[in-house]
Write a structure and sequence with these properties.
The protein is of the alpha+beta class. It has helices at 16-32, 69-81, 102-128; strands at residues 3-11, 36-52, 55-66, 85-93. The protein has a single domain (3-99), classed as 2-Layer Sandwich (Alpha-Beta Plaits). InterPro entries: Ribosomal_bS6, Ribosomal_bS6_sf, Ribosomal_S6_plastid/chlpt, Transl_elong_EF1B/ribsomal_bS6.
Length: 135
């Protein structure tokens, strides 16, 4: 079966639970039509380069699909109908990535930097008030 990477953007005012429901719905469409979703990555809310349907931000989600073309076509048809989906894109690939995508690696790196910054800042907090005091 052909392999695909599929990314869709949902409106920013949709809750994360609603995005997860959409993910489950579209996974069901793929599986009902003889395909499988090998990996799902929810990238979170990201800023858009320009407004799309009056939205400045969107929830981004990526699927790695192993599915026949009619299954992908049906999923895309249902996404066109859904008013909460701003855009989507499906790309046929030779092989699927098994490790986290670049977006997830970036998020991990950013979270690690934030955590290190917080640890560094909290280490100095306890000693800042004691400077200049005699024991």
């Amino acid at each position: 079966m052909p392999l695909y990477e599929h990314i869709f953007m949902a409106r920013q005012d949709v809750t994360p639970q609603q995005v997860e429901a959409m993910v489950d719905q579209y996974k069901g469409v793929i599986e009902q039509n003889g395909g499988s979703v090998d990996k799902t990555e929810m990238w979170g809310v990201k800023s858009l380069a320009y407004r799309i349907k009056k939205n400045r931000k969107a929830h981004f989600t990526m699927f790695n699909l192993n599915a026949p073309a009619p299954a992908v076509a049906e999923m895309e048809r249902q996404m066109r109908i859904n008013e909460d989906i701003l855009r989507f894109m499906t790309i046929k690939v030779e092989e699927l990535e098994t490790e986290p995508s670049v977006m997830m690696q970036k998020r991990d790196r950013d979270e690690r930097k934030d955590r290190e910054r917080r640890e560094r800042d909290t280490d100095g907090v306890g000693f800042a008030g004691n400077e200049g005091e005699e024991a």
